[in-house]
Design brief:
The complex is a heterodimer. In chain A, 68% of the residues lie in helices and 9% in strands. Chain A is an alpha/beta fold. Chain A has 2 domains: 3-42 and 175-372, no CATH class; 49-153, abc type-2 transporter like fold. In chain A, strands 2-1-3-4 form a 4-stranded mixed β-sheet, with helices on both faces. The longest helix of chain A is centred in the middle third of the chain and has 32 residues, at 176-207. Chain B folds into 2 domains: 5-44 and 180-376, no CATH class; 51-157, abc type-2 transporter like domain (abc type-2 transporter like fold). Chain B is built from 14 helices and 5 strands. Chain B has helices spanning 5-21, 23-43, 62-73, 86-94, 108-113, 129-157, 182-212, 214-220, 225-255, 263-288, 291-308, 321-327, 331-345, 349-376; strands spanning 51-57, 77-83, 100-104, 118-125, 167-174. In chain B, β1 (51-57), α3 (62-73) and β2 (77-83) form a beta-alpha-beta unit. In chain B, α7 runs parallel beside α10, α7 runs antiparallel to α13 and α9 (225-255) crosses α10 (263-288). The chains are: A alpha/beta, B alpha/beta. At the A-B interface, α2, β4, α6, β5 and α7 of A face α2, α5, β4, α6 and β5 of B. β4 (116-123) of chain A pairs parallel with β5 of chain B.
């Protein structure tokens, strides 16, 4: 193996990559745009529930109930439809999330000691958001009941009541950015390293220069190293760039160690570059390579726990996720950023990444050499 | 501009030939939708159940055990382990073996029996905010529920008449009665599929001519820009419509997700959106003139925005104002709104015409831009 030949190969790759001016925005802008958009987009925090209220009772009690809803500032009464039909229209046009309908006999029933029914309508469209809205609604009603009982029966009921003291760790304000920004750092690294490697090789083949490379003294292993080093460097550069944006723009705390993060990135790159090489061996044209890359990236992305929790998946699919390098990298990167844990706790993930990386890379290299011969 | 159908047919024929020869691209054009529907239908869900919970019971009394039994009986929680102390809890959360911990302190049931407030500590792993938000709401609701039962027990103990709760909420859920994320994700995924197949595949077709140098040949032929565009778009239009059909049928057959509104509306809206996607892809292709750049541009301006900014799974209403504005120029926003109308809300043209009109406008603008760019390129 000659380092000189590898160095020249690497230099050629860089010249080719940067000579085409249109490539530059891809390398710098694409990861940044992805990070910025993702960072702001993914937000499930429920801060504002738009309520349509029909109050047919118009009594002190009904006003108390509406006050109980609006007191927490999460529920906001945005519409006061006159009829159920109008309320339905508001739902159809997706202008409100929740409808409250207080019947005419609301307060008379309460005063009689009866149970008054309040109709609550929730838009179930986005079910995860709807579940939280419904849970908040029941909590308001439960608390309101407590208040009313106190008032109606004129006594403080001091019964043994459970007080749930809920504390949230790692991300106390449930800030979505803290969860997703480290994830997108991982995703950006994968996207570029996977695609660029396979395209770099296929372009040689499409242009017919692969033949020329083969007749030079360059050995297959030197070719592979020469083709992967530039993209390793670029991927690491991008990783540094997006991490800096995550730290200083999004102000994501980096609780753990930087060397551990760097090590994990290198191990992860082993798998993605390997996959890129593999794709280049099974594709003839750039179009094929891009479609195949996409076909790999989709499941990598979906089955990694990036947005969709792995615990929710059926068992068989959960097993499949063990083959997904992004899964381990995400656990590591989130662990390092949010939990501040290190190799002592994350070693199984590091081990898995190493094994997967070596297996994928070695397999791809083997296939690649066979195709060259 | 005249469009000669024979020329269009010739270009389309050549494109079909390319597609058939490049068998894998074609097969991936159908495999991607299948994969996505299967993934989203079977594997991916944003709903929270079976929250992995660890419990530390410093009490070991009847009432603490009763509390844990109730927790276990709830469909939302799954007790993964009973741990001896707080250190073990920290370890379980650090390793991600559990996402919630319930700690019952010593003296808890004594407090309960003495009718004092008895604190229970709940620790939540907040890393995933979607999950933690729902889990927090569930555990709060669960504790309120237990409290209601305790109140009844208390009243019975005191020999008082039972108090009926003054207010009862009758909760009805509209549009997605079972609260399953699948019901809104599967229709939404159709929009993503069309973007992938429509824009990403076509983004390569004109760039390929430029890269291979065959654009020169095309220029010398008696073909107008409109004919070239139509010829390039038609094969992908058919692939896209087939993908929609696959997605609709799979959603129906495998997951029982049925359209509430009419089929014709679905076909109309899908064709329109597909036309927007195709013209967008072609425009990217003739502007960038390079397959790699075109592909990356297509990912950036078609796939990612459709996934992220279109109300697909990420609520637009929670985004900052400038992204909300951005979301209103993305075709997928309108198409997903139409899909939600067709699949969940049972809306007709009377409600959906503004969205359809906007998509038509987008298509016309993009088609015009395509012709202008190609004419400048010498066609």
């Amino acid at each position: 193996m000659s380092w000189l030949r590898i160095r020249e190969m690497v230099r050629k790759e860089f010249i080719q990559l940067f000579r085409d001016r249109k490539n530059r925005p891809i390398l710098v802008m694409a990861p940044l745009i992805q990070l910025l958009v993702f960072g702001y987009v993914v937000n499930y925090d429920i801060k504002d529930i738009r309520v349509a209220l029909i109050d047919q009772s118009r009594t002190r009690e009904s006003r108390l109930l509406t006050d109980a809803f609006t007191a927490g500032r999460i529920f906001r009464i945005t519409h006061l439809p006159g009829t159920s039909g109008e309320m339905e229209d508001l739902f159809l046009a997706a202008k409100v999330d929740l409808g409250i309908k207080i019947p005419p006999d609301f307060s008379s029933r309460i005063r009689r000691g009866d149970t008054a029914e309040v109709q609550i309508i929730a838009d179930g469209g986005m079910s995860n958001m709807a579940s939280v809205r419904i849970a908040y609604t029941t909590i308001v009603i439960d608390r309101f009941n407590g208040e009313l009982i106190k008032e109606l029966y004129g006594r403080e009921l001091k019964y043994g009541k459970i007080d749930g003291r809920i504390r949230t760790w790692y991300n106390p304000n449930l800030d979505s950015q803290h969860f997703f920004v480290p994830g997108i750092v991982a995703f950006v690294v994968m996207l570029i390293s996977l695609l660029l490697t396979s395209i770099a090789i296929i372009k040689e083949r499409e242009a017919g220069t692969m033949e020329q490379l083969i007749v030079t003294p360059l050995k297959p292993i030197e070719l592979i190293i020469g083709k992967t080093i530039p993209y390793t460097i670029i991927a690491i550069g991008q990783m540094v760039m997006v991490t800096l944006v995550a730290l200083y723009w999004f102000e994501i705390p980096l609780a753990g160690s930087v060397p551990a993060l760097f090590l994990a990135t290198c191990l992860f790159l082993l798998s993605t570059l390997g996959t890129g090489l593999f794709i280049s061996t099974v594709s003839k044209t750039q179009q094929q390579a891009m479609m195949t890359t996409f076909f790999f990236i989709l499941p990598f992305f979906m089955l990694s726990g990036f947005v969709f929790p792995i615990a929710n998946m059926p068992t068989v699919v959960q097993w499949l996720t063990y083959l997904n390098p992004l899964r381990y990298f995400l656990v590591i990167i989130r662990g390092i950023f949010l939990k501040g844990v290190g190799l002592d706790i994350l070693w199984p993930q590091y081990a898995a990444l190493t094994v997967l990386g070596i297996a994928v890379f070695a397999g791809a290299v083997g296939r690649f050499r066979k195709r060259l011969d | 501009m005249t469009v000669n159908l024979r020329n269009v047919r010739a270009i389309a024929g050549k494109e079909v030939y390319h597609l058939v020869r490049d068998f894998r691209s074609l097969y991936l054009a159908f495999a991607v939708p299948l994969l996505l529907i299967l993934l989203f239908g079977y594997a991916l869900s944003l709903d929270v159940e079976n929250i992995e919970t660890v419990v530390v019971d410093f009490e070991q009394t009847d009432s603490s055990r009763d509390f844990i039994r109730r927790l276990e009986a709830s469909p939302y929680f799954r007790i993964a382990a009973q741990l001896p102390n707080a250190e073990a809890v920290k370890e379980a959360l650090d390793h991600g073996r559990a996402t919630m911990a319930v700690i019952i302190p010593a003296g808890w049931s004594a407090d309960l029996r003495a009718d004092r407030e008895a604190a229970i500590q709940v620790l939540l792993d907040g890393s995933d905010p979607n999950f933690a938000g729902i889990a927090r709401a569930y555990i709060t609701g669960f504790i309120e529920g237990v409290n209601r039962k305790l109140l009844v027990e208390f009243l019975n103990r005191q020999g008082m008449e039972q108090i009926r709760p003054p207010v009862e909420a009758r909760i009805r859920i509209w549009f997605n009665e079972d609260l399953e994320s699948r019901n809104f994700i599967i229709p939404g995924i159709i929009a993503i599929i069309i973007m992938i197949v429509g824009a990403m595949l076509t983004s390569l077709v004109i760039a390929r001519e430029y890269e291979n140098g065959t654009m020169e040949t095309i220029r010398s032929l008696p073909i107008s820009a409109g004919e070239l565009l139509l010829g390039k778009a038609i094969p992908y239009f058919l692939i896209g419509l087939t993908d929609v059909l696959i997605a609709v049928l799979m959603g129906q057959a495998l997951f029982g997700i049925v359209m509430k509104a009419s089929y014709w509306l679905m076909i109309l809206a899908s064709s329109l959106y597909l036309m927007v996607a195709l013209t967008l892809g072609l425009l990217i292709s003739s502007v960038t003139k390079s397959q790699l750049v075109a592909n990356q541009t297509a990912v950036l301006i078609t796939y990612l925005p459709s996934l992220l900014l279109s109300n697909f799974v990420f609520p637009v209403i929670n985004m900052p104002k400038f992204l909300q504005l951005f979301s209103s120029v993305i075709p997928a926003t309108y198409y997903i709104n139409i899909l939600s109308g067709i699949y969940l809300r049972n809306l007709g043209l009377a409600y959906l015409w503004p969205d359809l009109a906007i998509l038509t406008g987008m298509f016309l603008i993009l088609a015009a831009a395509n012709c202008i760019v190609l004419k400048r390129g010498g066609l």
